[in-house]
Amino acid sequence: MTPPTVSAMLTLIFVIGATAAVPQKALAIDARDRSIISGVRVGAITKNSTKAQLAHIYGARNVRATKVPVGEGETVDGLVLFKGRAAELQIRFKRGTRRVELVVIEKRGSPWHTRNGIRIGASAVRLARLNGGRFRLHGFDWDYAGRSAGWGRGRLSKSLTVDFAPTRKLPDRERMKVASDAKFWSSHPVMRRLRLVVHRILVEIK
User: Which residues pair with 93 in a beta bridge?
Assistant: First the structure.
């Protein structure tokens, strides 16, 4: 057997080292995996995922091309997985490219979740606890109603954004105190009385 050349040995060492440096969880290709690692992946979806790759993993009938809304009536190209099922999600491509930019989850009963348990229906109180303190969110009655506005110096990932929805109806005079595009603390008395829960999860993929 001919011994490997120095060049071949160096290439092998580089490949092994590069593979070891990438967390295996970030490379998950298990079609049953419903975990989210903010900024890295959602299940098997990464920034370089293509329709063909996802069709191979999740099944061609579960992956469809679509237009994904980005607000104010605009849309961009994307994909939808598991249309009409609890695990449905939308994948948004960066405008003018086929690079995955954002994954949007909003189905009630969705199995997708972060490692620390953030999922559709989780309470704002729970997220404040996971964050290690209060956070800011936008008011209601506009396009980005109830959207988180960063986690401050908290523990939650900057690649994770959530939209909150109230589960309790309040008199108009109270609700109007937080009905604007201004930012409010999650500890605001009206926000707390609205008993907010996660209505939509947006995961930025970098």
Answer: 100
